[in-house]
Amino acid sequence: MKAPLYSKNGSQKGDLELNPEIYAARVNARLLELVKNAYAANLRHGTASTKTREEVRGGGKKPWKQKGTGRARASSIRSPLWRGGGTVFGPHPRDYFVALPASMRRSALIAALSQKAKSSQIVLMEEIAVSQPKTKEFVAMMKLLPLNDRRTLCVVAEVEPSLKRASQNVKSRVEIRKAADLNAYHVLQREKLVIEKGALKVLEDRLLAKDTKKQG
Length: 216
Hints:
6-stranded mixed sheet, 34% helix, elongated, alpha/beta
């Protein structure tokens, strides 16, 4: 498995061999779906809240007497049947967090990276850096790559302050992520994947550490 390697000025330096244990692994579509849904659930704040009839202010007095008016019986103006009344079975603050085993998170990330590699969506760069924290410079560097104006994820070994600031205004189109913090959800949310050459080693050390310990 290989991926094209580019310099900052957009010139192609050839192809770089990718570790087949990470970028040529079997893609488990069901695993990716489960992990993607779990990560999406973990992003939910769970702060949506509605008031029941007991929590809505007012309504302590009966609107009218029980009989003799010709109208339907009513006990409170805060009944769910009334405008301004309480909500029945409405949302309340809750925790949507889904715990994922470390082995599942690791396998999902490897599957996501393999999926991108097999569909030729990975581009390598010698270095992803800017001389000044300017969006214009960052955008110009990205336009030199064969990204076809697709939503892109840039994986770097370390996120420099200047790079973070330069990419802040265009993060909806091009997002910067540190290799040590990368997960499958980040990869699946973007169509193109740009990986800094130095970040390849970080990903290998992180994803293959378990196998190394077993061998030792």
